[in-house]
Amino acid sequence: MAIPELPTADQSAVPSLEAERELLNIIRLNLVPGLGPRTFQLLLEHFGTPTGILQATVSQLQQVQNVGPKLAMSVVTHGTEQAAREEFRRICDARVSLFVRDQEGYPASLGRIPDPPTLLYCRGTLLPADQLAVAIVGSRHCTPYGRQQANRLAQALARAGITVVSGLARGIDAEAHKGALEANGRTIAVCATGLNAIYPPEHIELAALISQQGCLLSEASMDQTPKSGLFPQRNRIISGLTLGVVLIEAGRNSGALHTARHAMEQNRDVLALPGRVDSEASLGCLDLIRDGATLIRNVDDVFQALGPLVAPVQRNAAECVHKPAELQLSDQERSILNLVSAEPILVDEVLRTASITASRVLSTLTVLEMKRLVKRLPGGFVVRY
Question: What CATH number should be reported for the domain holding residue 359?
Answer without folding.
Answer: 1.10.10.10
